[in-house]
Design brief:
Strand order of the largest sheet: 1-8-9-10
Number of strands: 11
Number of domains: 2
Radius of gyration: 17 Å
Shape: globular
Distance between the termini: 30 Å
Helix content: 25-40%
Largest sheet: 4 strands, mixed
Structural class: alpha+beta
Order of helices and strands: HEEEHEEHEHEEEHHEE
Strand content: 15-25%
Number of helices: 6
């Protein structure tokens, strides 16, 4: 397995769990399009949140040129306002951005031939979840949350839904209702299973 594949897996883990308790760059050198060669090992296709223009499914366990393309595009644009992730749909790397910023990204990346797609998540809610995270009590466990690049969702683990919504409402009135709407839409996914603390 290549070093790029290992880096890709690490990047996905970081994007999936951005936070836990306790101007666009230059043109990318690596081609953004890197279809998997015939005879490549099978990869898993992951379904995602659905909204107009969103990427329907992405591949995991990337290796070779595909992993390199995702890694390089992500390294170039990570940290740019509106950037959320880079995913691979089976033929090309796609930059996923906040929907409201999509026109600016299309203008910037279109001439370079880099694909861009909107995210379905509510970035205001993601910011609210991150702000509420330190207030959540998990006993002897851990609470983690952030943007899940593979599912295009806000992922919260280690706390139940009611506790999360109460914490969001305490941060800002109406944020709890926003969270419930996102849960119904599938763009906020809460898993109350306990995450043991690491000694």
């Amino acid at each position: 397995m290549s070093r790029a594949a290992d880096t890709w897996r690490s990047g996905v883990a970081l994007l999936a769990l951005v936070a836990s308790v306790g101007g666009c760059g230059a043109t990318v050198g690596q081609p953004a399009s890197a279809p998997l060669p015939p005879g490549s090992p099978p990869v898993e296709r992951v379904g995602r949140s659905q909204c107009p223009g969103a990427v329907e499914g992405v591949l995991t366990n990337l290796t070779g040129d595909a992993a390199d393309a995702v890694e390089e595009v992500g390294g170039t644009y990570h940290g740019t306002p509106g950037f959320l992730a880079v995913v691979f749909d089976g033929s090309k790397a796609i930059v996923v951005v906040e929907a409201a910023r999509l026109p600016d990204w299309l203008i910037e990346l279109g001439p370079a031939g880099i694909a861009v797609a909107p995210s379905c998540i509510d970035p205001t809610l993601l910011a609210g979840v991150k702000a509420a995270l330190p207030t959540l009590v998990a006993g002897d466990g851990t609470v983690s949350a952030g943007y899940n690049a593979l599912e295009d969702s806000i992922s919260v683990m280690g706390v139940d839904t009611d506790t999360l919504i109460d914490a969001l409402d305490a941060q800002q009135a109406g944020m709890g209702a926003r969270a419930r709407a996102a849960i119904e839409a599938g763009t906020l996914r809460v898993d109350g299973a306990k995450i043991p603390s690491v000694p």
